[in-house]
Design a protein that fits this description.
Elements: E1 8-12, E2 14-15, E3 18-19, E4 25-28, H1 75-82, H2 88-93, H3 99-114, E5 119-127, E6 130-131, H4 143-154, H5 163-179, E7 185-192, H6 208-217, E8 222-227, H7 238-241, E9 245-248, E10 268-271, E11 279-280, E12 283-284, E13 289-295, E14 306-308, E15 315-317, H8 328-351, H9 356-372
Antiparallel strand pairs: 1-4, 2-3, 5-6, 5-7, 7-13, 8-13, 9-10, 11-12, 14-15
Helix pairs in contact: 3-8, 6-8
Length: 373
């Protein structure tokens, strides 16, 4: 729920607007933390925790022992794994609120990538089975169109670039709220300006597609990932989905508009389609990287679901703690951050140096190599 006014303060690692090599510390204050100081106290404030008082208490009460797991959360599995009968320890640590820190770190990675004209963007494709026709381009190869979609999404309250669908999505969210229900959806993360050559086929865990999939499925509630045309590729023949390779020499007239870093000046190797989503053999191929993530509905419902108390073993209706109706637009921003962190890591693995100038020189040298290839 939008009770936070997130703002990050830089505590270390930056001097006069530039990083200095030490760890960057970003502080994001949680405005709600003061209500929970007693319950989350480091020291034991209550002499005995009687299990008969195991019902969920409100903040600032004598005791807040949680023994009633919420369906769809880490509550029950986490309590069993860590052998605790106070689910409060599980639900606080597993909360998606921690993605605020990842988003802040992703902003640093995004700033770094922007120095090399690499853009990380996202937009909502679908919420509650209401799908945008304008987004969800899947195999889009036109970077300008992708950037336009992102700019439209930035101006939308639900991060949907399709104005015709935006209102339908908002109405659907409002209807779910009145019903006490929640909604999931799909968002796309796009990375443009990526040079060919990031990632590797040599080890499974160095493949760029694997690393990006790992990062996005690490976001709470993400249940599926597609890259490029994704699952649709399995439904078609190879002749329909494999991106053919073309070459235009520097002397060709008129020059082709560049689609990637490998084709500056309108010449070099290129593809007319991007069904692979910018990654082939675990390596970026110079085309826009297109990722699609599916998010399940938030499992905390105002209309309670059935569960069982872990102490009494008696059935009950799950307790409701503050929650959104739909977090897909917010999750898309977290997806941007995670993609930025992975791309920045891969970029530095290939072009890393001890100063921005050195990284720039390494990168420019590689681009010259590509143009001569």
């Amino acid at each position: 729920m939008k009770i936070e006014t997130d703002a990050a303060r830089i505590l270390s690692g930056v001097r006069h607007g530039k990083t200095i090599g030490s760890p960057i510390t970003l502080l994001i204050e949680n405005k709600d933390w003061s209500n929970w100081q007693e319950i989350m106290s480091v020291e034991l404030r209550v002499k005995s925790l009687k299990l008969k008082n195991s019902e969920l208490r409100t903040p600032n009460s004598e005791l807040s022992l949680v023994t009633r797991p919420r369906p769809g959360h880490a509550d029950l599995a986490g309590a069993i794994k860590y052998d605790t009968h106070d689910i409060r320890n599980i639900l606080e640590r597993s909360s998606a609120r921690e993605t605020a820190a990842r988003t802040a770190a992703g902003a640093v990675a995004r700033k770094f990538l922007s120095e090399f004209d690499i853009k990380v963007m996202s937009y909502v494709v679908e919420i509650g089975n209401t799908r945008s026709q304008e987004s969800g381009v899947r195999s889009q190869a036109d970077e300008k169109k992708l950037i336009t979609l992102f700019e439209k999404a930035e101006a939308s309250p639900v991060r949907c670039p399709d104005k015709n669908i935006e209102r339908k999505i908002i109405n659907k969210i409002d209807a779910a709220m009145k019903k006490g229900d929640t909604l999931g959806g799909i968002f796309e993360v796009i990375v443009t300006g990526v040079p060919p050559g990031l990632g590797s086929y040599s080890q499974w865990d160095r493949r760029l597609n694997a690393r990006l999939s790992y990062a996005l499925t690490g976001i709470q509630a993400i249940k599926g990932i597609e890259i490029g045309l994704g699952l649709e590729m399995s439904r078609r023949s190879g002749s329909e989905v494999i991106d053919e390779i073309y070459y235009r020499s520097q002397k060709s007239n008129p020059p082709r508009p560049p689609l990637s870093k490998g084709g500056e000046g309108g010449f070099g190797f290129y593809r007319k389609t991007n069904n692979a989503g910018g990654i082939e053999g675990g390596i970026s191929n110079g085309m826009p990287i297109i990722l699609r993530a599916a998010m399940k509905p938030i499992p905390t419902l105002r209309t309670p679901l059935s569960s069982v108390d872990i102490i009494s073993k008696k059935p009950f209706k799950a307790a409701y703690e503050r929650s959104d109706v739909c977090a897909v637009p917010a999750a898309s921003v977290v997806g941007e951050a995670m993609a930025a962190l992975v791309i920045a890591d891969c970029f530095l693995e290939k072009f890393g140096g001890d100063s921005m100038g050195e990284v720039q020189r390494n990168y420019e040298g590689y681009l010259k190599q590509i143009r001569k290839f």
